[in-house]
Design brief:
Chain lengths: 137, 283
């Protein structure tokens, strides 16, 4: 459910500095949605992980960020959509310390712990979409 | 929109009075450049583009994304790049393309009305080409900005000496791979030069620590250790600490401190320096 004043923006993720742009957008939305400093930082960090995943493993894609609201609170929702190879073993991908690349293997699982809602859909050969939401308190 | 006969007509129209058109075009374009480019340069540029454009037109195509216009697009990209580097504004850049329209209009007017349909077609085509330069111009501008931010990156990572044998690197802003590489190199070089055995990496100014940043920090600390220096990470603010825990990053046996002051005190102690308050000093 989007509030009438809900802002929404789509950003491409094609290069390293696009990740920074996504992060800045999420931070400004999180401030508008009046998230606490800790929640802002958690959300920004989670989206930073996911945006980098989109870039590194998904071969680039888009980030769709919006301010959402229900009856009593506001929050920020961000979707990361790529048309990359998809994730063959989702459970394995969520294992702490497991990585198919060169990272720490904490991005996906860590991001899930940092947000309130986490939704991942993936299809091998078709791409991956991750949507996260952080609500204000 | 593709109509071979019309295409030939349009190409013929331009080709027929090529010299006159180009001269007028160069004149119009030059007036907006206010001497930042010589007319001879401009003439060479536009003449080249004119030839390519007429060739493309004579294929009958009116869509600038067609292969026929590939050369024209490349030339415009080149032109936009030069203009951006010379500090021209986007409109000053695009006007170079639009000026041909005026030259053609003037020609048609002198001849009477029979070329009107061609003019309309050419007009929208030139608009498209003008927009193409816009697009490429802003892309080049972004490249320039990227270059500048890279230069800035060199500037904003100083290694400072806090005490004999104690170095500090205050990090501000975004920590990406390129930046960390610079930080690491500078720190390691400074360690060699100064023979310091204590290094403090202060991340007070880093807005967010994600796994990539953490990984970079860990690598830097490891490298410093291999050189015999002990590294402390300071400036971990409450929200960053909570986020790091949430992510599940382990800093292992690396010493971390909340503030740079704490880290300095720790480093001094490790270096065998005691900091004591004078006895008769009021607090």
């Amino acid at each position: 459910m989007t509030s009438p004043a809900g802002e929404r923006k789509e950003l491409p993720i094609r290069r390293d500095d696009d990740v920074v742009r996504v992060r800045q957008l999420v931070r400004s939305y999180a401030q508008q949605a009046k998230l606490s400093l800790v929640d802002q930082t958690k959300l920004v960090t989670a989206t930073s992980e996911l945006a980098r995943n989109t870039l590194t493993y998904g071969g680039g894609g888009v980030a769709d960020v919006e301010i959402v609201a229900d009856t009593r609170r506001r929050g920020v929702r961000a979707s990361f959509i790529d048309e990359g190879p998809g994730i063959a073993d989702v459970e394995l991908a969520f294992t702490d310390g497991w990585t198919s690349g060169k990272g720490l293997g904490l991005g996906l699982s860590g991001a899930r712990r940092l947000v309130d809602e986490f939704n991942l859909t993936t299809e091998v050969g078709r791409g991956t979409t991750v949507t996260v939401t952080k609500w204000g308190r | 929109m593709t109509n071979p006969t019309q295409g030939d007509q349009l190409a013929d129209l331009l080709r027929g009075d090529a010299d006159e058109l180009i001269r007028r075009w160069v004149g119009l374009a030059a007036s907006s450049l206010r001497g930042r480019m010589t007319e001879a340069e401009l003439d060479r540029e536009l003449r080249e583009f004119f030839a390519v454009l007429v060739d493309a037109l004579s294929t009958g195509s009116r869509d600038i994304k067609d292969d026929a216009y590939a050369d024209a697009r490349v030339l415009l990209e080149e032109l936009s790049r030069t203009r951006a580097r010379l500090g021209f504004s986007p409109s000053e850049t695009a006007v170079g393309v639009f000026a041909l329209k005026r030259a053609v209009f003037e020609l048609i007017e002198r001849r009477g009305n029979d070329g009107f349909r061609e003019v309309i077609a050419l007009s929208s085509l030139l608009d498209d080409l003008g927009l193409w330069t816009f697009e490429f111009y802003s892309r080049t501008r972004e490249e320039i900005i990227t270059e500048q931010s890279e230069q800035l990156l060199e500037l904003t990572t100083p290694v400072v000496k806090l005490w004999d044998g104690v170095l500090a690197v205050p990090l501000v802003g975004t920590l990406d791979s390129a930046r960390t590489q610079v930080v690491m190199e500078k720190l390691l070089e400074a360690l060699v030069e100064s023979g310091a055995e204590q290094a403090i990496i202060d991340i007070t100014g880093v807005l967010a620590v994600d796994t990539q940043v953490a990984q970079h920090l860990l690598k830097t600390v490891m490298a410093a250790r291999l050189m015999g220096a002990e590294c402390t990470i300071s400036g971990i603010r409450p929200q960053i600490a909570q986020t790091i825990v949430g992510l599940g990053i382990e800093f292992g046996d690396i010493t971390t401190k909340a503030s740079l002051a704490d880290a300095l005190l720790h480093a001094l102690r490790r270096a065998g320096v005691d900091v004591v308050r004078r006895r008769n000093q009021a607090v």
